[in-house]
């Protein structure tokens, strides 16, 4: 059972990463979702630039320990992302692309929000 739960945690972790990366675009359709995304995006930055551990990594490590395994070697990103998904030496480029995607998604959300909030033009008959 611990193996299944560890696997489920990995799936949730990848879903969270996708949401951190692209969730700003959901605000184009659901503007209030931007507040949830800001929290997740900030959390993603914090756990990647400070020694603060991600609770999903801690949870996966917990289930790994129940299986008699050790912690993820190097953490979630080092084990699953850097190398297997993002080739070595490309991390800086991916970081820049991620910031561009975030800025584009937030700019689009803001523009759509402004458009929806603008008063309708008066129609003269």
UniProtKB/TrEMBL annotation:
Transmembrane is among the record's keywords: yes
Keyword presence, Membrane: yes
Origin: domain of life: Bacteria
Keywords from the UniProt entry: Membrane, Transmembrane, Transmembrane helix
Transmembrane segments: 6-27, 34-53, 93-113
Entry-linked InterPro entries: DUF2784 (IPR021218)
Protein name: DUF2784 domain-containing protein
Lineage of the species this protein comes from: Bacteria, Bacillati, Actinomycetota, Actinomycetes, Pseudonocardiales
């Amino acid at each position: 059972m611990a193996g299944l739960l560890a696997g489920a945690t990995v799936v949730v972790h990848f879903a969270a990463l996708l949401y951190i990366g692209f969730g700003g675009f959901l605000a184009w359709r659901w503007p209030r979702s931007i507040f949830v995304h800001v929290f997740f995006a900030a959390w993603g930055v914090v756990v990647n630039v400070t020694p603060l551990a991600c609770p999903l990594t801690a949870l996966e490590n917990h289930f790994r320990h129940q299986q008699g395994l050790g912690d993820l070697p190097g953490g979630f990103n080092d084990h699953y992302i850097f190398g297997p998904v993002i080739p070595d030496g490309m991390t800086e480029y991916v970081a820049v692309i991620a910031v561009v995607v975030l800025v584009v998604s937030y700019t689009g959300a803001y523009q759509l929000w402004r458009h929806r909030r603008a008063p309708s033009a008066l129609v003269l008959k």
